[in-house]
Structure formats: structure tokens, C-alpha cells
């Protein structure tokens, strides 16, 4: 059976899928529709993520955030989205480049008779029998202006050729022509994608690191996009030609160019969605050649108040939030972090033999910064990459911030206006005085290195008389505006900044307005920053505040009162340090659902379905399902999982079992929660013994509660280090996928009893108790912060003797441990009709 030293679980599963490849670096994929003139042999195209399949990583959009109007909900692309292509070892790739691999065959793009558009929402166009209008209104005289030459690349929709201008301003100049086949446009959305790509290329063409757009034409069969010819090959070619990695000075030069282009199109409200080495081309083969970003075929507009939700991109470079279907420009920053990692060390930060294995690594594994060559790479370079590869998109640097990072500063990158400043200032000027005071205190603790960026942004807004007004923000945004910015409607944010028309922000208050709490939290010195900020707040901004007022400040309801009570000092009614830190972040309370059933049998049926659905979700997302059990009647209610269809369909081998509390006794003792679970459930399902983590049997038999709690906490920390258990955001507490809890008639849950000090424990993960009101007296239990960090918490309660406590816990008329239950995603109370009988009328409908 599993214990503190059970085996590590690999992040790569042996799937029955076609391998995505085994290697250090991605080789060339011939699925990139770009205009590289390099003749380096292409490798065969391979299986991509199937966009017909509904992603297993669905999560709701954040509260108050509307889906992008440019997207059809649940949109599925009819073409595979680009790589991962099979990754070959670096030396093998170099050998191919010496001529041992065949050149790609020339010829027309094969027609795909099965290329149909599946699963379109009604009204999207292109339905059965509906004739699509593929006339874009572009000029028709391509052959009169350009002489078409050899093919230089192939892509999803078409191919790219070399051409020479016969007339016009660029007469005699060689160009690249991207030829997009209209035959491949099988839906209204695919037609709109081409139209949008052309509009974006045209709007963004002016930047020095964006490929130049010259013209666009069409005939009955194709669209011809005329662009600058980049003859230096792809960035991937350059990486491989250098043996797989760049020295730091050269990597910095590359990254400054990538970030400069990215900062520019992000300011226009455009997210690229497929940044990778294959999509950056050098203008020539000279050492000092300029790098250009290409291929906006998957790009979209990212409005400031909306999140995109379709899963597109390349598996090795895709951000975690893309898999969760809620993302914006931060997803591009993650991709640049992957590119940075590859440039510096020559290998990928996330690797798997299959696409699903890659996704699991992206979601739960951490990049390796310990193996060679990382010890020889500067600490500043490592810090730079880590701040791009933060799984919490709120903590990543923006492209403009990355250009101001100390590691890149000696490259003298030209800084660009950062639109995130606008969003932060908008929130600040609309915040309450109490929150503004908290942010002002935080701004006084900002490290000098972080102030460099804020000073640069302040100057880009061109302050007058030492301060900023609304017109400064308006003028600055207008200065950089292109048609893409208008299309993404970013200037609409100015309407929400009207209070600045009658207010001036000096630099000190600008720092308070423009500081990102989450990005500061990503710094190693965050604890010192927060401590210093709290000291300023105590001296200058703090005041007594009631639980009700604090809840209103944070837009929380009465169910948050028990949680907020712990953030206020009883001595003077002011926020304590924990409360100040939480207040800066803001808290979103998980929804609390109540489901009432006529009988225990009906409740068991639904509890089994709920558990099985979550098992499927987390096994697909993470390859692991962490489940926390409790004692009492809960085990008896899991019996439906032992029947069809669940017993044969659940991936039991991926379950990992823990206990929220345990009686300090031997496993075979009748009071043991482990024995209860084993006899009634675990012995009947094929969960591997090494995946079951019980209390130390020897310490249980000895009755050593304190040491048993310490050992179980050590066990949990080891499972965190092995990536079996996730950690909750910044708190560092373990985050389990599902906790199945019960409640006693006195309102206790786990072994947290009313009136006991253990309910207020804020540091430990597991604590001990020696005076339980219920025998046996010695127990260990998860602390409340650990319980409340779970993704999903289920409270299952039956019988009339529990009715008073159920009502008190859910209405918060008494301060009961069960009334403090929350979760990261959702809390669900499963109640039978008797247990729910004292709830206020209308609170629950019987299912």
C-alpha cells in the first residue's frame, strides 16, 4: 500500500495513440504555411490534435466575462492544428540537413474528399446544400503583376511560392506569394479566417519585425497574398544549425525581436495563438539578419473584457489556459517562454510521447532548471524564463514587461506601451477608497527593478505637470492605433476611465494603479514585499472594518462571513496580515449547491455519477484523480460505484486515495477509517495498493497522534513533489481533486469540532487532536485551509438528526466547522429529504 515513500508517478502515460515523437527539439514540420525560401528537407507531417473532438479541458469562462463574438461556441477546426510533429534528435536532424534525407516532393496540394465541416453551430454558414460565397472582392489581375516561380513551402490551406513583381512600386523585386486554395474553404468560418488573416497582415505590416504585406488577389480557385520574401530560413533551422541552443547573448538578441513584435500586436488587441520557432523567419542569411513573425492564420482579436475559448495552437507550445478554454494574449507569452527555454538549453520544457501526454505535462509538470546546461546559465536568464512559464497566466510578464526585464536591459530594447496598464488603471480608479489605500501601500514596497518598467510606461504616456489625465491615455493609445486595434475595440476601455477626466495621477499614485499584485506575487521576494506593504498599510491606510463591510468590498455574500472573520483582528477590528494579502488579491467564493433526494438510494445513485464524471474529467486532464475520503456513513453511500457502468468504465488505476481525518489506531482496528473504507469499498475496486495513502500503521497502533499528523503531512508533501497532488495557487497548500465529506450532528466535519482550537490552524496541513468529543479521543485531521483548497468538496448528509446542523451551517446562523466549507471550484451538499427538512422554504427542490 502507498505510504510516504511510494513511487513517483511519471507524467508520461503509455497511451495507445500514435506517438508524437521522441527527442530534444522539434524538427521541421511541413504543415506551416509560410514563405521560407530555405531548401532544407521537410519531414513528413504527422497527427495533430484533433479539433473535432470536444476538449476534455473545458472550464467555464470567468464570471462576468463574455465569450468572444468572433468565435462560434464550441468551434471545431476542420483542419488539424499545427504540430507537434515527430521530434527527432538534434544530431539526426543535422545529418538530414547534410543531405541524407529526401527533399519534399513537388506537386499540387492533394484534394481531401473527406474534408467536411463537422459540428457547426446553426447559423454559422456552410450548411448542407448551402452554396458558400467565396468571392472576397480582391483584385483579379495577379498574373498581370507578378511572375510566379518555384514553391518554397506548404501549409494547411495551400502553399507559398517565390515570385517577381512585373510592375508597380516594387517592380523587379522578389516576393513571397501565399496561395490559399478556395477548395479548402468548406465553411463560412474558414472563409472568415482567411479574410481576417489578410486584414491582420495588412494592419500589422508596418512594424519592423512583422513580415511586410504588399497586396492580395484572387481568382476562381485561389487567394494570392503577396508578402515580403524572407530568405534566411526559420528560427528552428538556426537553432539546429547551432547544435541545438544559442549562447545567452545571441538568445537575448533573438528574444528582443520576438518580444518587440509580440508587444506590438498585443497592443493592437491581437493574439497570435501559434508562436513557435517555425513561425519566425530571418530576412537574410547574414548574422545580423532581422527576425520576422509570420503566419497569422490562427490569430484572433482579443478584446480587453473577453476570453477566447477554442483550442488551437501547437501542442508543445500551447498554454495551460488554452487547454482550459479561457485565454487571451497571455497564451502567447507562454509560447515565448517555451521558445526561450529551447533557445537556452536545447530541449523542450514539456515533453510527452503523445499529444495527451504533452498536455498533461503542460498542465501539471514543472520545467527542469537543474540539469545541464542550466547550472551554467545566468540566474537572470533563468528568472526570465520562469516568469514567462508561470502556469497562472495572471503572474506572467507581458511582452512589454519582458522587454524591461534586467536580463534584456543591456540590449537596449525599445519599450512599447503596455495595454495591461490601461486595464489596471481602470480597475484602480473604479475601486473603493479602502482598496486604493491598500494598493498605495503595496506600491511603496515595489522593488527598484520592477519600478523601471512603471517609470518607462509613465513616460510613454507623456505626463503633463508631473501627472496623467484621461487625454494622456487617449493620445498614447491613438498614437499606436492600427485597423486591428479598432477591430479589437481596445479603445472602448477609455469610456470606463472617465473619472480620470477630472483627476490627475502623479507617479506615486500611477504606481499604485498600475501595479499587478499577481505579478509581484510571482517574485521570490514576494513575502518581504507583502510584509513591508502591510507595515505601510498599518501606518497610513488601515482602519477598523466589519465582516459585512469587508464582504461588500470584495463583492462576496454571507456565505463568506466565516472565512472573512479570520482575516480581521479581534483586538482592533482591522485587517491582519493574512486579510491584507487576501484583500489585495480578491476572493471568488466557489458556488455552493444543494441537492436534495427523496431516498438514500437516489442520493447514492447521483453521488456515484458525480464522482465518476469528475474521475473522467481529471483523468483526461491530469492522468491522475486525487480523492479524499472520510469516515462515518460516507463509505456506505459509494456502493453504486461498485456496479455497472462504473465498475468497468472508471480508470481506477489513476485514482490516488487519501483521508481527510483518521482515528489514531492500527489499520485493523474497528474504529479505523482506513478499515471502514477498505472493507466497504477499496477491497472491491482495482486501485493499485501503492496509490492508497493511509496513516502510519505503527504510529497508529502506538497512539502517537502528534507524530502521526507530522508523518502524514510529510507524506502529502512528498506527493506534491512527485506531482501527484497539485498545490493551490500561491498558498502552497495541497489541492485535491475531490473530497467526500460528512458532517456530525454537532456540525463538525473531518475531526474539526466546534469550539476546538484546531479549527483556527492556518499553517499546518495536518493537525492532531487528543480530546475528540466522540471516541476514540486521539485523531489526526486536515486543517481547514487544506480542506477548502480542494477543487470540489462534496458534503453528504442524511437523517433528521442532522437537520438542525445542516440548516445552521448553510444559513450561517451558527459558526459551525461545516459552515466554513468552501472550495476552489464548487461545493455540493448531497442531502436526503430528512436532513434538508429544516432549511428555509424554497432553498432546495427535491430531486
Automatic annotation (TrEMBL):
<comment type="similarity">
    <text>Belongs to the glucosamine/galactosamine-6-phosphate isomerase family. 6-phosphogluconolactonase subfamily.</text>
</comment>
<keyword id="KW-0378">Hydrolase</keyword>
<dbReference type="InterPro" id="IPR006148">
    <property type="entry name" value="Glc/Gal-6P_isomerase"/>
</dbReference>
<feature type="region of interest" description="Disordered">
    <location>
        <begin position="1"/>
        <end position="128"/>
    </location>
</feature>
<keyword id="KW-0449">Lipoprotein</keyword>
<keyword id="KW-0723">Serine/threonine-protein kinase</keyword>
<keyword id="KW-0677">Repeat</keyword>
<feature type="compositionally biased region" description="Polar residues">
    <location>
        <begin position="45"/>
        <end position="58"/>
    </location>
</feature>
<dbReference type="GO" id="GO:0046872">
    <property type="term" value="F:metal ion binding"/>
</dbReference>
<keyword id="KW-0808">Transferase</keyword>
<dbReference type="Pfam" id="PF00069">
    <property type="entry name" value="Pkinase"/>
</dbReference>
<keyword id="KW-0597">Phosphoprotein</keyword>
<dbReference type="InterPro" id="IPR050205">
    <property type="entry name" value="CDPK_Ser/Thr_kinases"/>
</dbReference>
<keyword id="KW-0547">Nucleotide-binding</keyword>
<keyword id="KW-0519">Myristate</keyword>
<keyword id="KW-0418">Kinase</keyword>
<dbReference type="InterPro" id="IPR005900">
    <property type="entry name" value="6-phosphogluconolactonase_DevB"/>
</dbReference>
<comment type="similarity">
    <text>Belongs to the protein kinase superfamily. CAMK Ser/Thr protein kinase family. CaMK subfamily.</text>
</comment>
<keyword id="KW-0067">ATP-binding</keyword>
<feature type="domain" description="Protein kinase">
    <location>
        <begin position="146"/>
        <end position="408"/>
    </location>
</feature>
<dbReference type="GO" id="GO:0005524">
    <property type="term" value="F:ATP binding"/>
</dbReference>
<dbReference type="InterPro" id="IPR011009">
    <property type="entry name" value="Kinase-like_dom_sf"/>
</dbReference>
<comment type="pathway">
    <text>Carbohydrate degradation; pentose phosphate pathway; D-ribulose 5-phosphate from D-glucose 6-phosphate (oxidative stage): step 2/3.</text>
</comment>
<protein>
    <recommendedName>
        <fullName>Protein kinase domain-containing protein</fullName>
    </recommendedName>
</protein>
<dbReference type="InterPro" id="IPR000719">
    <property type="entry name" value="Prot_kinase_dom"/>
</dbReference>
<dbReference type="InterPro" id="IPR037171">
    <property type="entry name" value="NagB/RpiA_transferase-like"/>
</dbReference>
<dbReference type="Pfam" id="PF01182">
    <property type="entry name" value="Glucosamine_iso"/>
</dbReference>
<dbReference type="InterPro" id="IPR011992">
    <property type="entry name" value="EF-hand-dom_pair"/>
</dbReference>
<dbReference type="GO" id="GO:0006098">
    <property type="term" value="P:pentose-phosphate shunt"/>
</dbReference>
<dbReference type="GO" id="GO:0016020">
    <property type="term" value="C:membrane"/>
</dbReference>
<dbReference type="GO" id="GO:0017057">
    <property type="term" value="F:6-phosphogluconolactonase activity"/>
</dbReference>
<keyword id="KW-0106">Calcium</keyword>
<dbReference type="GO" id="GO:0004674">
    <property type="term" value="F:protein serine/threonine kinase activity"/>
</dbReference>
<dbReference type="InterPro" id="IPR008271">
    <property type="entry name" value="Ser/Thr_kinase_AS"/>
</dbReference>
<dbReference type="InterPro" id="IPR017441">
    <property type="entry name" value="Protein_kinase_ATP_BS"/>
</dbReference>
<feature type="binding site">
    <location>
        <position position="178"/>
    </location>
    <ligand>
        <name>ATP</name>
    </ligand>
</feature>
<dbReference type="GO" id="GO:0005737">
    <property type="term" value="C:cytoplasm"/>
</dbReference>
<dbReference type="GO" id="GO:0005975">
    <property type="term" value="P:carbohydrate metabolic process"/>
</dbReference>
<keyword id="KW-0479">Metal-binding</keyword>
<feature type="compositionally biased region" description="Low complexity">
    <location>
        <begin position="34"/>
        <end position="44"/>
    </location>
</feature>
